Amino acid sequence: MSNPILNTTVRYPSFDLIRLLLAVEVVVVHTWASLDPHFSWPGFIRAVPAFLAVSGFLVLKSFANTGSWTAFARKRALRIFPALICSLLLGYVLLDYTFLINSLTVWVTGGLMMPPHTNSALWSLAWEELAYAVLAILWALGAYKRPVYIWLLLAVASVISWKITTMPISPYYHVLSYLAPAFFTGNLMFLYQERLMRFGSVLPWVFFVVVCLWTYIPIPGIGGDMAPSVVQAFAVVWAGMSGAKLIPSKIPDLSYGMYVYHIPMILFINAAYKPGNAFLTGTLLALALVLFSSASWYLIEKPALKLKNQPSPAAEGQPRVL
Protein backbone atom coordinates (compact mmCIF):
# COMPACT_ATOMS: atom_id res chain seq x y z
CA MET A 1 0.00 0.00 0.00
CA SER A 2 1.41 3.40 -0.92
CA ASN A 3 1.61 6.00 1.76
CA PRO A 4 -1.27 8.54 1.85
CA ILE A 5 -0.60 12.21 1.21
CA LEU A 6 -0.12 13.75 4.63
CA ASN A 7 -0.64 17.24 5.97
CA THR A 8 1.62 17.92 8.95
CA THR A 9 0.93 21.65 9.23
CA VAL A 10 -2.80 21.68 10.07
CA ARG A 11 -3.77 22.84 13.55
CA TYR A 12 -6.61 20.81 15.08
CA PRO A 13 -8.23 23.09 17.69
CA SER A 14 -10.67 20.46 18.94
CA PHE A 15 -7.94 18.28 20.45
CA ASP A 16 -7.42 20.79 23.25
CA LEU A 17 -11.11 20.52 24.13
CA ILE A 18 -11.13 16.73 23.82
CA ARG A 19 -8.17 16.33 26.16
CA LEU A 20 -9.72 18.75 28.64
CA LEU A 21 -12.97 16.74 28.65
CA LEU A 22 -11.03 13.51 29.23
CA ALA A 23 -9.05 15.08 32.09
CA VAL A 24 -12.23 16.39 33.71
CA GLU A 25 -13.77 12.93 33.47
CA VAL A 26 -10.74 11.39 35.20
CA VAL A 27 -10.87 13.99 37.98
CA VAL A 28 -14.61 13.45 38.55
CA VAL A 29 -14.26 9.67 38.66
CA HIS A 30 -11.29 9.74 41.06
CA THR A 31 -12.92 12.34 43.32
CA TRP A 32 -16.09 10.32 43.58
CA ALA A 33 -14.19 7.07 44.13
CA SER A 34 -12.17 8.65 46.95
CA LEU A 35 -15.41 9.28 48.87
CA ASP A 36 -17.38 6.15 48.01
CA PRO A 37 -15.61 2.77 48.31
CA HIS A 38 -18.44 1.14 46.34
CA PHE A 39 -18.17 3.56 43.42
CA SER A 40 -17.93 1.62 40.14
CA TRP A 41 -18.99 3.96 37.31
CA PRO A 42 -16.36 3.52 34.55
CA GLY A 43 -17.00 6.90 32.96
CA PHE A 44 -18.24 7.73 29.48
CA ILE A 45 -14.91 7.07 27.75
CA ARG A 46 -11.96 4.97 28.87
CA ALA A 47 -9.78 8.01 29.38
CA VAL A 48 -6.25 6.60 29.38
CA PRO A 49 -6.67 4.61 26.13
CA ALA A 50 -8.32 7.71 24.64
CA PHE A 51 -5.32 9.83 25.65
CA LEU A 52 -3.05 7.23 23.98
CA ALA A 53 -5.14 7.40 20.82
CA VAL A 54 -4.81 11.19 20.72
CA SER A 55 -1.06 10.80 21.26
CA GLY A 56 -0.93 8.24 18.47
CA PHE A 57 -2.26 10.91 16.13
CA LEU A 58 -0.54 14.06 17.39
CA VAL A 59 2.84 12.56 18.26
CA LEU A 60 3.13 10.92 14.85
CA LYS A 61 2.28 14.33 13.39
CA SER A 62 5.07 15.82 15.51
CA PHE A 63 7.58 13.24 14.31
CA ALA A 64 6.52 13.74 10.71
CA ASN A 65 7.25 17.46 11.11
CA THR A 66 10.88 16.81 11.99
CA GLY A 67 11.92 13.27 11.11
CA SER A 68 14.60 13.62 13.78
CA TRP A 69 14.92 11.30 16.78
CA THR A 70 16.72 13.91 18.86
CA ALA A 71 14.22 16.67 18.12
CA PHE A 72 11.37 14.28 18.81
CA ALA A 73 12.84 13.16 22.16
CA ARG A 74 13.49 16.77 23.16
CA LYS A 75 9.91 17.79 22.38
CA ARG A 76 8.45 14.88 24.34
CA ALA A 77 10.71 15.53 27.33
CA LEU A 78 9.82 19.22 27.41
CA ARG A 79 6.12 18.37 27.32
CA ILE A 80 6.16 15.60 29.93
CA PHE A 81 8.78 16.34 32.56
CA PRO A 82 8.17 19.95 33.72
CA ALA A 83 4.62 19.27 35.00
CA LEU A 84 5.54 15.74 36.13
CA ILE A 85 8.37 17.04 38.32
CA CYS A 86 6.06 19.75 39.64
CA SER A 87 3.43 17.13 40.51
CA LEU A 88 5.98 15.07 42.43
CA LEU A 89 7.04 18.15 44.39
CA LEU A 90 3.40 19.05 45.00
CA GLY A 91 2.80 15.61 46.48
CA TYR A 92 5.79 16.02 48.77
CA VAL A 93 4.67 19.47 49.94
CA LEU A 94 0.99 18.61 50.46
CA LEU A 95 1.51 15.11 51.83
CA ASP A 96 4.89 13.61 52.67
CA TYR A 97 8.13 12.04 51.51
CA THR A 98 6.57 8.57 51.34
CA PHE A 99 4.00 9.85 48.86
CA LEU A 100 6.81 11.21 46.70
CA ILE A 101 8.72 7.91 46.67
CA ASN A 102 5.58 5.86 46.07
CA SER A 103 4.57 8.14 43.19
CA LEU A 104 8.01 7.74 41.61
CA THR A 105 7.59 3.98 41.93
CA VAL A 106 4.22 4.05 40.19
CA TRP A 107 5.57 6.19 37.37
CA VAL A 108 8.76 4.17 36.78
CA THR A 109 6.98 0.79 36.88
CA GLY A 110 3.96 1.89 34.90
CA GLY A 111 1.69 0.90 37.76
CA LEU A 112 2.96 -2.69 37.94
CA MET A 113 3.95 -1.70 41.46
CA MET A 114 1.15 0.30 43.05
CA PRO A 115 1.91 1.01 46.72
CA PRO A 116 -0.75 2.73 48.83
CA HIS A 117 -0.58 6.47 49.46
CA THR A 118 0.56 7.41 45.97
CA ASN A 119 -0.26 9.44 42.88
CA SER A 120 -1.88 6.51 41.11
CA ALA A 121 -2.58 8.56 37.97
CA LEU A 122 1.12 8.51 37.05
CA TRP A 123 0.99 4.84 36.01
CA SER A 124 -0.02 5.72 32.46
CA LEU A 125 2.94 8.02 31.76
CA ALA A 126 5.47 5.20 31.52
CA TRP A 127 3.35 3.39 28.95
CA GLU A 128 2.89 6.57 26.96
CA GLU A 129 6.64 7.09 26.94
CA LEU A 130 7.08 3.48 25.79
CA ALA A 131 4.60 4.18 22.98
CA TYR A 132 6.77 7.11 21.88
CA ALA A 133 9.80 4.81 21.71
CA VAL A 134 7.83 2.25 19.68
CA LEU A 135 6.75 5.00 17.30
CA ALA A 136 10.36 6.09 16.78
CA ILE A 137 11.42 2.49 16.08
CA LEU A 138 8.58 1.93 13.63
CA TRP A 139 9.51 5.19 11.92
CA ALA A 140 13.12 4.05 11.57
CA LEU A 141 11.94 0.73 10.11
CA GLY A 142 9.81 2.58 7.55
CA ALA A 143 6.55 1.08 8.83
CA TYR A 144 4.64 4.34 8.43
CA LYS A 145 5.47 4.42 4.73
CA ARG A 146 3.39 1.25 4.36
CA PRO A 147 0.29 1.53 6.54
CA VAL A 148 -0.43 -2.18 6.06
CA TYR A 149 2.14 -2.83 8.79
CA ILE A 150 0.30 -0.57 11.22
CA TRP A 151 -2.94 -2.35 10.33
CA LEU A 152 -1.26 -5.67 11.16
CA LEU A 153 0.00 -4.32 14.47
CA LEU A 154 -3.48 -3.05 15.30
CA ALA A 155 -4.97 -6.46 14.47
CA VAL A 156 -2.43 -8.34 16.60
CA ALA A 157 -2.78 -5.89 19.51
CA SER A 158 -6.59 -6.13 19.31
CA VAL A 159 -6.56 -9.94 19.40
CA ILE A 160 -4.23 -9.90 22.40
CA SER A 161 -6.45 -7.35 24.13
CA TRP A 162 -9.54 -9.43 23.42
CA LYS A 163 -7.92 -12.52 24.96
CA ILE A 164 -6.79 -10.59 28.03
CA THR A 165 -10.20 -9.03 28.62
CA THR A 166 -11.76 -12.50 28.72
CA MET A 167 -9.40 -13.61 31.51
CA PRO A 168 -10.37 -13.40 35.20
CA ILE A 169 -7.45 -11.15 36.11
CA SER A 170 -7.03 -7.68 37.60
CA PRO A 171 -8.91 -4.93 35.70
CA TYR A 172 -5.58 -3.09 35.55
CA TYR A 173 -4.32 -5.59 32.97
CA HIS A 174 -7.52 -5.20 31.01
CA VAL A 175 -6.98 -1.44 30.80
CA LEU A 176 -3.31 -1.99 29.99
CA SER A 177 -4.27 -4.18 27.05
CA TYR A 178 -6.37 -1.36 25.56
CA LEU A 179 -3.40 0.96 25.14
CA ALA A 180 -1.67 -0.53 22.10
CA PRO A 181 -4.87 -0.84 19.99
CA ALA A 182 -5.77 2.74 20.90
CA PHE A 183 -2.32 4.05 20.00
CA PHE A 184 -2.23 2.29 16.63
CA THR A 185 -5.76 3.52 15.93
CA GLY A 186 -4.48 7.07 16.39
CA ASN A 187 -1.52 6.33 14.10
CA LEU A 188 -3.77 5.06 11.33
CA MET A 189 -6.11 8.02 11.62
CA PHE A 190 -3.16 10.33 11.06
CA LEU A 191 -2.13 8.34 8.00
CA TYR A 192 -5.66 8.52 6.59
CA GLN A 193 -6.48 12.00 7.85
CA GLU A 194 -7.44 13.46 4.47
CA ARG A 195 -9.99 10.72 3.81
CA LEU A 196 -11.49 11.10 7.27
CA MET A 197 -11.68 14.88 6.98
CA ARG A 198 -13.97 14.51 3.93
CA PHE A 199 -16.86 13.62 6.25
CA GLY A 200 -17.01 17.20 7.51
CA SER A 201 -17.00 18.53 11.06
CA VAL A 202 -20.48 17.57 12.32
CA LEU A 203 -20.58 13.79 11.86
CA PRO A 204 -17.43 13.15 13.96
CA TRP A 205 -18.96 14.96 16.95
CA VAL A 206 -22.28 13.17 16.54
CA PHE A 207 -20.42 9.87 16.51
CA PHE A 208 -18.42 10.95 19.58
CA VAL A 209 -21.61 11.69 21.54
CA VAL A 210 -23.15 8.36 20.54
CA VAL A 211 -20.02 6.50 21.66
CA CYS A 212 -20.01 8.38 24.98
CA LEU A 213 -23.54 7.05 25.53
CA TRP A 214 -22.57 3.54 24.36
CA THR A 215 -22.98 2.07 27.85
CA TYR A 216 -26.55 3.29 27.99
CA ILE A 217 -27.52 2.11 24.50
CA PRO A 218 -28.43 -1.59 24.09
CA ILE A 219 -25.76 -2.44 21.51
CA PRO A 220 -24.59 -6.08 21.64
CA GLY A 221 -20.98 -6.26 22.79
CA ILE A 222 -18.32 -7.99 20.70
CA GLY A 223 -14.73 -8.78 21.52
CA GLY A 224 -15.19 -8.39 25.26
CA ASP A 225 -14.35 -4.85 26.35
CA MET A 226 -11.71 -4.47 23.65
CA ALA A 227 -14.00 -3.59 20.74
CA PRO A 228 -15.70 -0.66 22.52
CA SER A 229 -12.24 0.64 23.45
CA VAL A 230 -11.08 0.69 19.82
CA VAL A 231 -14.32 2.38 18.79
CA GLN A 232 -13.86 4.94 21.58
CA ALA A 233 -10.31 5.63 20.42
CA PHE A 234 -11.56 6.23 16.89
CA ALA A 235 -14.40 8.48 18.09
CA VAL A 236 -12.14 10.62 20.28
CA VAL A 237 -9.52 11.20 17.58
CA TRP A 238 -12.10 11.77 14.84
CA ALA A 239 -13.81 14.45 16.90
CA GLY A 240 -10.45 16.02 17.71
CA MET A 241 -9.35 16.18 14.08
CA SER A 242 -12.76 17.27 12.76
CA GLY A 243 -11.73 20.90 12.48
CA ALA A 244 -14.85 22.15 14.24
CA LYS A 245 -13.87 24.94 16.62
CA LEU A 246 -16.54 24.60 19.29
CA ILE A 247 -14.96 27.24 21.53
CA PRO A 248 -14.30 30.57 19.74
CA SER A 249 -11.02 31.43 21.46
CA LYS A 250 -8.05 29.16 22.04
CA ILE A 251 -8.16 27.54 25.45
CA PRO A 252 -5.06 26.88 27.55
CA ASP A 253 -3.99 23.25 27.52
CA LEU A 254 -4.72 22.44 31.17
CA SER A 255 -5.48 18.76 30.59
CA TYR A 256 -2.05 17.33 31.39
CA GLY A 257 -1.64 19.46 34.50
CA MET A 258 -5.09 18.49 35.76
CA TYR A 259 -4.24 14.84 35.18
CA VAL A 260 -0.94 14.80 37.09
CA TYR A 261 -1.96 17.18 39.92
CA HIS A 262 -5.44 16.02 40.89
CA ILE A 263 -4.62 12.94 43.01
CA PRO A 264 -2.38 14.69 45.58
CA MET A 265 -4.95 17.49 45.78
CA ILE A 266 -7.81 15.05 46.38
CA LEU A 267 -5.89 13.27 49.13
CA PHE A 268 -4.86 16.55 50.76
CA ILE A 269 -8.40 18.00 50.72
CA ASN A 270 -9.89 14.79 52.12
CA ALA A 271 -7.27 14.60 54.87
CA ALA A 272 -7.10 18.28 55.81
CA TYR A 273 -10.72 19.37 55.55
CA LYS A 274 -12.65 16.09 55.71
CA PRO A 275 -15.57 17.42 53.64
CA GLY A 276 -18.72 15.45 54.25
CA ASN A 277 -19.98 15.18 50.70
CA ALA A 278 -18.80 14.89 47.12
CA PHE A 279 -20.15 18.32 46.17
CA LEU A 280 -17.98 20.14 48.73
CA THR A 281 -14.93 18.07 47.85
CA GLY A 282 -15.53 18.67 44.17
CA THR A 283 -15.94 22.42 44.66
CA LEU A 284 -12.73 22.76 46.67
CA LEU A 285 -10.86 20.55 44.25
CA ALA A 286 -12.16 22.36 41.17
CA LEU A 287 -11.06 25.75 42.48
CA ALA A 288 -7.63 24.53 43.60
CA LEU A 289 -7.02 22.40 40.53
CA VAL A 290 -7.99 25.03 37.98
CA LEU A 291 -5.88 27.69 39.70
CA PHE A 292 -2.84 25.45 40.11
CA SER A 293 -3.11 23.94 36.63
CA SER A 294 -3.44 27.42 35.11
CA ALA A 295 -0.37 28.62 36.99
CA SER A 296 1.50 25.51 35.89
CA TRP A 297 0.50 26.07 32.27
CA TYR A 298 1.48 29.72 32.07
CA LEU A 299 4.57 29.61 34.30
CA ILE A 300 6.03 26.15 33.60
CA GLU A 301 4.50 24.18 30.73
CA LYS A 302 3.96 26.90 28.14
CA PRO A 303 7.49 28.35 28.52
CA ALA A 304 8.84 24.80 28.11
CA LEU A 305 6.77 24.33 24.96
CA LYS A 306 8.33 27.45 23.47
CA LEU A 307 11.70 25.76 23.83
CA LYS A 308 10.50 22.64 22.04
CA ASN A 309 9.45 24.68 19.01
CA GLN A 310 12.98 25.93 18.49
CA PRO A 311 14.64 23.73 15.86
CA SER A 312 17.72 21.89 17.03
CA PRO A 313 20.82 21.70 14.78
CA ALA A 314 20.28 17.95 14.42
CA ALA A 315 16.81 18.54 13.03
CA GLU A 316 17.89 20.94 10.29
CA GLY A 317 17.77 19.43 6.87
CA GLN A 318 15.71 16.45 8.06
CA PRO A 319 12.69 15.35 6.01
CA ARG A 320 9.31 16.67 7.05
CA VAL A 321 7.11 14.10 5.35
CA LEU A 322 6.73 10.37 5.55
UniProtKB/TrEMBL annotation:
The protein's superkingdom reads: Bacteria
| GO molecular function list | acyltransferase activity
Indicate the segments annotated as coiled coil, or none if absent: none
Record bears the keyword Transmembrane:
yes
- Is-annotated flag, keyword Glycoprotein? no
Domain named Acyltransferase: residues: 13-293
Which InterPro entries does this chain map to?
Acyl_transf_3_dom (IPR002656), Acyltransferase_3 (IPR050879)
Known PANTHER family for this protein?
Answer: ACETYLTRANSFERASE (PTHR23028), ACYL_TRANSF_3 DOMAIN-CONTAINING PROTEIN (PTHR23028:SF53)
Instruction: Please give the name of this protein.
Output: Acyltransferase
